[in-house]
Amino acid sequence: MTNPVVRRADDVSYETVDAAEGMRKGVLVGEDEGAPNFAMRRFVLDAGASVPEHTNEVEHEQYVLAGEYTVGIGGEEYVVSAGDSLLIPAGVVHWYENDGDTEGSFICVVPHGEDEINLVE
User: Closest Cα partner for 56 from 120, 4, 121?
Assistant: First the structure.
């Protein structure tokens, strides 16, 4: 049986994302907290930051918390802002660009398992 978990914002540590200068990630709830199926992470994309084209082995569901930025998904570009939701299917090329003056942030939920990030050249 899985035990309930409540994590306070101050208890979440953030680390830089290797493939993306200006992006940080914090795991809100994941395997370390006993979540059996999914990891919920919060990403912060600094003003002026971008994430290069890449693919992932697992799907991503995202919910935009703050800011306005552009997401490329499978050859289409979308300007997203707080309250928008996204599905990025496994294996689909995607990227991020924050041309705004304020940071953007989003929740990203992924299934547990191996996830290989492949940069597109």
Answer: 120
